[in-house]
Amino acid sequence: MPHLMLEHSGNIREQVDVEHLFRELHAALSEVGGFRVQDFKSRAVRLNAFIGDGTYEQAFVNLDIRTFAGKPAEAKRLISQEALRVLGRHFHRTMAETSCDISVQITELNRESYSRTRSEDLVPQVPSLQESTAP
């Protein structure tokens, strides 16, 4: 945790280096949010079908930060603002050349209803040398 889900319209002006963007977000959000960098799970999706009023080229960038519930309101505000600051730097050309909204939301996940499995849960335990040589 956390999961970062970045969605953006297909008409953004930048050639986004997603790996660089996420590395910067991970570092920044770790600092203000207390997350461990190795715990981020991040992905980006370009959306070519989106609705606008059609009178001016519209664009959007939205980051959904999914994390377990329990952070104080002030901590969530700082996390959201820091993410918005990083996104603003990465999408400044789109902001200048289109009618663009950049937004950040924090979605709180309930621990009781969140399920997962990990690779290490599925890997069979390798017997020790002593166990494998026993008759």
Automatic annotation (TrEMBL):
Xref: SUPFAM superfamilies: Tautomerase/MIF (SSF55331)
Domain of life: Bacteria
Annotated InterPro entries: 5-COMe_2-OHmuconate_Isoase, Tautomerase/MIF_sf
Protein name: 5-carboxymethyl-2-hydroxymuconate isomerase
Organism: Streptomyces blastmyceticus
